[in-house]
Amino acid sequence: MPKYKGVVTTEDRFDASTSDHVHIKLVGMDGESPRKTVSTRHFSFPAGSVFKFELNCKRSVGKLILIELDKTPRLLLPQRSWFPAKIELESPEGETYHFPIHRWITNKESQMFREGTEYVQQNWRKDSLFGYQFLNGVNPMVIRRCLVLPENLPIREDLLFLHGGNSLAEEMQYDWLLAKMYVRSADFSDHQLNSHLLRTHLLAEVFSVSLLRNLPMVHPLYKLLVPHTRYTLQINFLARNLLISDSGVFKTV
């Protein structure tokens, strides 16, 4: 009878543990495994724990496509959320599969997880991934098609465009890679200054100052908002000194 060996790792963070029964089902190219309870008789998965289990099948399910996880509360115990880090499985053929999870599982509904891939590690130099990161990253705020070079751009077209159907990626591979790094760095700086610092921290400072100046401490609205704005002024003070001052990161890097 084929036997799958598994390892469940729970995140080492506050309240990530659960006392619920955890169940798993394997889905492969050649079939599915029965639903298996992987928890123990005692406390199931403490925070930071690594738990090993085995799952027997009547026949091999082939190459694993995904796993299904669900949990049910123990008798007379309340349901607890669970934050697993990953699940690793070794097939009877000796192949190892890695399923990263890194999310809360809060209810009884079955959740599916695909195997983690190393796509970015293997394809980070490709222009297709570079474009994907721009369109799906943290800063796709405004996208405009550039039909002609701007008049104030001090670069001639004969220096920018190549003849004969060639490209910089083909002729100067590492120069092209360095150029993409500069563009990514500039986009990151723009995101941190505009989207993060300006539209998050500095915008919240306006409401924090208004709250402190206009509402007494006994006001219900003050009590509601002050836990969320307690450290706004402090972190903005540090940001001004460390990021945008004359000796800050954006001036010196």
TrEMBL record:
<keyword id="KW-0479">Metal-binding</keyword>
<protein>
    <submittedName>
        <fullName>Uncharacterized protein</fullName>
    </submittedName>
</protein>
<keyword id="KW-0443">Lipid metabolism</keyword>
<dbReference type="Pfam" id="PF01477">
    <property type="entry name" value="PLAT"/>
</dbReference>
<feature type="domain" description="PLAT">
    <location>
        <begin position="2"/>
        <end position="119"/>
    </location>
</feature>
<dbReference type="InterPro" id="IPR036226">
    <property type="entry name" value="LipOase_C_sf"/>
</dbReference>
<dbReference type="GO" id="GO:0016702">
    <property type="term" value="F:oxidoreductase activity, acting on single donors with incorporation of molecular oxygen, incorporation of two atoms of oxygen"/>
</dbReference>
<dbReference type="GO" id="GO:0034440">
    <property type="term" value="P:lipid oxidation"/>
</dbReference>
<dbReference type="Pfam" id="PF00305">
    <property type="entry name" value="Lipoxygenase"/>
</dbReference>
<dbReference type="InterPro" id="IPR013819">
    <property type="entry name" value="LipOase_C"/>
</dbReference>
<dbReference type="GO" id="GO:0046872">
    <property type="term" value="F:metal ion binding"/>
</dbReference>
<feature type="domain" description="Lipoxygenase">
    <location>
        <begin position="140"/>
        <end position="253"/>
    </location>
</feature>
<keyword id="KW-0408">Iron</keyword>
<keyword id="KW-0560">Oxidoreductase</keyword>
<keyword id="KW-0223">Dioxygenase</keyword>
<dbReference type="InterPro" id="IPR020833">
    <property type="entry name" value="LipOase_Fe_BS"/>
</dbReference>
<comment type="similarity">
    <text>Belongs to the lipoxygenase family.</text>
</comment>
<dbReference type="InterPro" id="IPR001024">
    <property type="entry name" value="PLAT/LH2_dom"/>
</dbReference>
<dbReference type="InterPro" id="IPR000907">
    <property type="entry name" value="LipOase"/>
</dbReference>
<dbReference type="InterPro" id="IPR020834">
    <property type="entry name" value="LipOase_CS"/>
</dbReference>
<dbReference type="InterPro" id="IPR036392">
    <property type="entry name" value="PLAT/LH2_dom_sf"/>
</dbReference>
